[in-house]
Amino acid sequence: MLNSVLIYNPLKVVGLASFHPLCEKIPYMKAYITIKLFATLKKYLPASDEHYPINPGVSVGELLDELQIPISMAKLIFINGKQGDSDTVLKHGDRIGIFPPVGGG
Q1: pTM (two decimals)
Q2: CATH assignment of 2-99, given 3.30.420.40, 3.30.70.260, 3.30.70.1130, 3.10.20.30?
Q3: Does residue 91 contact residue 31 with C-beta atoms inside 8 Å?
Q4: In tens digits, what is the pLDDT along the chain, a chain of 105 residues?
Q5: Could you tell me where the DSSP H helices lie in 31-77?
Q6: Do residues 70 and 91 lie in contact, with contact meaning Cβ atoms separated by under 8 Å?
């Protein structure tokens, strides 16, 4: 039934975007991700880090710009537990973790 609603009248399911896997295929629907920032990057963490809205097709680099995190500060990027980079395209439900450069001696 939900599939027929999506096909025939997608405007009625806009509110279901965060619960339906097709939200990334319909351009006006928002997708949501979970953001984890570590160490010195925690100061950039948005209030809605567990349910952060993104436009479908946004890259990690664009997300860093949106959060005002300098690209040089994003040393390690993980998406769903796998290493990514600033060109990786995010999709609904992704979990992104970003680590700064680590110093020591």
Answers
A1: 0.71
A2: 3.10.20.30
A3: yes
A4: 444 334 444 444 444 444 455 555 555 578 999 999 999 999 999 999 999 999 988 999 999 999 999 999 999 999 999 999 999 999 999 999 999 998 766
A5: 60-66
A6: no
